[in-house]
Amino acid sequence: MPDPRDRVDIDGLRTPDDADATPPAGEDSAAKRFIMIWFRCCHAYGRLTRNAAGTHYAGRCPRCAAPVSVRIGPGGTDRRMFEAR
């Protein structure tokens, strides 16, 4: 049985127990959706954020600013890490 004294509350961190709680004011969960990308051009990691319409993820290489766009398909995927060539 878990000991309630083992729980540590960190401001802004949500746990599965908080699933029904509303997010803090000004926080939009859709705006935080992203996928990680390995940019082979510059050997760097970056993130692509989801657009407002929810049709694709878009971003740029953090070093050379090469644009990358990934379409969101109907079936989707569970992968969160991709490679840009």
Verbal overview:
The protein starts with 33 loop residues before the first strand and ends with a strand. Strand 2 and strand 3 form a beta hairpin. The protein has a five-stranded mixed sheet, with no helix packed on it. By secondary structure, the protein is an all-beta fold. The model has no long low-confidence stretch (mean pLDDT 76). The chain contains no helices and five strands. It is globular, with a radius of gyration of 17 Å.
In short:
The protein is mainly β.
- Assign a percent range to the helix content: under 10%
Distance between the termini: 49 Å
Q: What's the alpha carbon Rg, rounded to whole Å?
A: 17 Å
* Principal-axis shape: globular
Largest sheet: 5 strands, mixed
The chain-level structural class is mainly beta
- The mean pLDDT is 76
Q: Strands across the major sheet, in which order? A: 4-3-2-1-5
Strand content: 25-35%
Number of helices: 0
What series of H and E elements makes up the topology? EEEEE
Name the features:
five-stranded mixed beta sheet; 85 residues
Topology, please?
Layout: E1 34-39, E2 44-50, E3 56-60, E4 67-71, E5 81-84
Parallel strand pairs: 1-5
Antiparallel strand pairs: 1-2, 2-3, 3-4
